[in-house]
Design goal:
Oligomer: heterodimer
Low-confidence stretches of chain A: none
Strand content of chain B: under 5%
Strand order of the largest sheet of chain B: 2-3
Number of domains of chain A: 1
Helix content of chain B: over 70%
Number of helices of chain B: 11
CATH class of chain A: Mainly Beta
Strand content of chain A: over 45%
Number of strands of chain B: 3
Radius of gyration of chain B: 21 Å
Shape of chain B: globular
């Protein structure tokens, strides 16, 4: 009993500690935090509020206005390597993806129905002064 | 709002199946006294996941994508290790039943007792964070300016359906003849655990910790869409992914084949019985029947 309690506590602690090192701030870009990009995913469209942003922490607020479950992916320029992803965005929900990105070309994709290539579009990240 | 309902159902099934079999096992082997440990593990997983999810939803920081995938992936693989150990513990324990009934001290049970809580914790907690983040997003939608409670309501209904299915499965499993019960629950757990392993591998592939995310062994997404009810059930119960990578398929096969062979050999090996005592299943069953 003591052992399992100890193990549980260790897991909880490990999770919290790893989270501290592996999180990204959610404070606005103006104060050196994440820049917010709103993504609207529907059955046939994936609309980003901006497609050219500065490097650093990006915060995608993905809103599902379709009727199927959607996912949002940020791919590297090869369109294969996942830079960031958020799953299980049910209809009517908004979920966040916070990801640190360097300057370069990226590809975004919404995947209504959770399958296939998704609805893809470009995202250009420029070198920003604060980074 | 069928889509949110199906997410709740899938996440609920993923969390409950292993726990349901554990409970059935303990009840069947006359160890109801140990059930509070299972519930404690489940409760701990739910509380930790919801609290951590709330902190990430409303707190000042978000988890990076890689960190979330790594947590889900690593916990899944660790959970497989524990479930596998559990299956073999259950098997040796079943073999020891007659010995136990003769009043011998069951050392295996004591060792298992301490770990029951951890197994239940991992089984529920491995994907608990993702479920919690999903539920909190639905709560935000209910509290936001648009104020739509439908997604949250549907998601909770999905989780409750999963719980009801878990209960029905439990009742069904208890009807299995005792001589086959431990073999069947073991086989089911091994197949479920293989799915969890493949799932963990996929999480680590998405986080680019493991390679080969885009080398698909097969893609049947058009035949078995994840958005369908049967796609949901296959995913929720067996963690079947319609688009499976080669690495996932390899990990699944390399786990399931040797583990099943070892397990079946283990349960079929005759128990070294004292001379003159017949070890058929029938007497054991007859003696144990009042338990359930």
């Amino acid at each position: 009993m003591k052992t399992s309690l100890f193990a549980l506590a260790s897991i909880a602690l490990a999770l919290t500690l790893s989270a501290c090192g592996l999180t990204q701030t959610n404070t606005p870009a103006a104060s050196g935090g994440a820049q917010e990009i709103t993504v609207t995913s529907t059955e046939d469209a994936c609309t980003l509020s901006e497609t050219e942003v500065g490097s650093g922490n990006l915060s995608f607020r993905v809103r599902n206005e379709g009727t199927e479950v959607t996912e949002f992916y940020l791919y590297a320029s090869d369109g294969l390597r996942i830079v960031g992803e958020v799953e299980n965005i049910g209809p009517g929900l908004t979920r966040d993806l916070v990801v640190g990105v360097t300057a370069g070309d990226y590809i975004t994709a919404c995947k209504p129905g959770m399958a296939g290539e998704g609805i893809r579009g470009p995202l250009t990240v420029t070198e920003s002064a604060q980074n | 709002m069928l889509a949110n309902y199906l997410i709740g159902l899938r996440e609920g099934l993923e969390a409950s199946l292993v726990v349901v079999i554990l409970i059935a096992y303990l009840v069947r082997s006359g160890r109801r006294l140990l059930l509070p440990r299972i519930w404690a593990g489940v409760a701990a997983a739910v509380v930790v996941s919801l609290a951590f999810g709330a902190l990430l939803t409303w707190g000042p920081r978000r988890l990076t994508f890689q960190a979330q995938e790594a947590i889900g992936g690593i916990l899944s693989i660790v959970a497989v290790g524990f479930v596998t150990w559990m299956v073999f513990w259950m098997a040796s324990h079943a073999r020891g039943l007659s010995a136990e009934l003769r009043g011998k001290i069951d050392v295996a049970a004591e060792a298992g007792r301490a770990s029951l809580m951890l197994v239940a914790f991992l089984a529920v907690g491995r994907e608990g964070l993702e479920t919690a983040l999903f539920l909190w997003a639905a709560t935000q939608a209910a509290a936001g300016s648009a104020a739509t409670t439908a997604p949250l309501f549907s998601a909770l209904l999905g989780i409750m359906t999963a719980a009801a299915m878990g209960f029905a499965f439990y009742k069904g499993v208890l009807r299995i003849n005792l001589s086959r019960f431990f073999t069947w629950t073991g086989v089911i757990l091994i197949v479920v655990a293989a799915g969890v392993l493949a799932y963990g591998v996929h999480d680590l592939q998405e986080a680019a910790i493991l390679p080969g995310l885009n080398s698909l062994a097969f893609d049947v997404s058009s035949t078995i869409p994840l958005t369908s009810w049967y796609g949901t059930l296959l995913k929720g119960i067996f963690n079947f992914s319609p688009a499976t990578t080669w690495l996932e398929a390899t990990a699944w096969t390399l786990y399931v084949v040797p583990t099943l062979i070892l397990f079946l050999r283990h349960v079929r090996r005759p128990i070294a019985a004292p001379a003159g005592e017949a070890h058929t299943d029938a007497p054991v069953e007859a003696r144990l029947q009042p338990v359930s």
